[in-house]
Amino acid sequence: MVDPDRRREPDRRKRSTSLFSRYCLKGRRRAARRAHEMRNSYVDRYDAPIAAAALLIVILSILDAFYTLTFLSKGGRELNPVAQSFIDFGPRSFVVMKGIVTGTCVLFLIVHKNFSFVKHVLTLVLSFYTLLLFYHLYLHSL
């Protein structure tokens, strides 16, 4: 056994892995190794269900943008003042900004996937966008 006093470098296990580690794109860690590290920890790789939910949220957000623009072209009105400010810059700007904002928020949730609130938030957002899509389909059928 190596005497801890003879180590030349500081013990790497004394601090947790940072949010943006050098292994963030090619890492191996999918989960924490110890039971007490399972909650509120960062990992290098992400599970397929989390990635699928995130991708679905982004797709539904983009569909929402297109259906919103269709609704507006038929005389509808955007009630969200932030979305309306993006629409004022033009339809392309609205779709791009909606995608960027949604993608950034989803990326934040994915990076924090082991935090207790994330699964609830992902489920809530996915449910919201699914209901919103059905609402858009209803408006489109009128």
Which outline best applies?
A: elongated
Low-confidence stretches: none
- Secondary-structure content class: mainly alpha
Largest sheet: none
- Residue share in β-strands: under 5%
Our count of helices gives 4
On the 0-100 scale, what is the average pLDDT?
81
Rg result: 21 Å
The rounded distance between the terminal residues' Cα atoms is: 76 Å
Helix content: 55-70%
Q: Based on DSSP secondary structure assignment, what is the total number of beta strands? A: 0
Q: What is the N-to-C succession of helices and strands?
A: HHHH
SSE topology:
Layout: H1 48-73, H2 81-88, H3 91-111, H4 118-141
Notes on the structure:
With 142 residues, the protein is mostly helical. It has a domain of 96 residues. The chain contains 4 helices and no strands. The longest helix is centred in the middle third of the chain and has 26 residues. The radius of gyration is 21 Å and the shape is elongated. The mean pLDDT is 81.
Give a brief description:
This protein is mainly α.
Characteristic key phrases:
single chain, 142 residues, mainly alpha, 4 helices
